[in-house]
Design a protein that fits this description.
This protein is an alpha/beta fold. The chain contains eleven helices and five strands. Helix content is about 55%, strand content about 15%. Strands 2-1-3-4-5 form a five-stranded parallel β-sheet, with helices on both faces. Helix 2 packs parallel to helix 3 (about 65-75) and helix 9 (about 170-175) packs across helix 10 (about 180-195).
Length: about 210
Amino acid sequence: MEHKPIRILIGDDHHHARQAMRLILGQDDHFEIVGEAKDGQEVLDLMETLHADIVLMDINMPKINGLEATKLLKEQYPQLKIVMVTVSDDISDLFEAIKRGAQGYLIKNLDPSIWLEYLHSISLDESPMPTSVAHQILKEFSSPTRDELANLTAREIQVLKGVASGLSNKELSLELHISEHTVKNHLKNIMKKLHLHNRVQLTKYAFEHHLV
């Protein structure tokens, strides 16, 4: 018996990213790419005529970003499955996408076989995600090693603990008796040493390494 292909719409403003997704999905004849969009508005416009089953949605796109487009699409097409596709390891972005109705997310540098397995599970309403996918994604989100933590100075560890406790730069400067400018410099150095990019990641790191 012939299977009905799963209709997929790709939304990503980068040509090479769309090309990579086409190559991955082309390995499995269960999937049919019905359209491609370069921004969130184009995703919304194409959905009106293409009626895809799954939208692969980049988070950062022009005109309407992926988060807002997800919210608008789910209001119009409640049955539509949306999977965020991102290079970002900012968990807050991904949680926000889930809150707005996305079924899940894929990180762009995951192995293609992981992509296909995950998209099959999404199309079949299987939950939770396959164990192999969960492990791969957790690995992508894994924190830096203890060796990197050892590179921090005593003052930098104090600042890191303060950030994880929810203190602002001003509050940190008062607590540590240093200027806000010095606090910012410490934060910049900490992020560079730990290969992190924002306070959310710093907080996650501090909790995982039992600093708070």
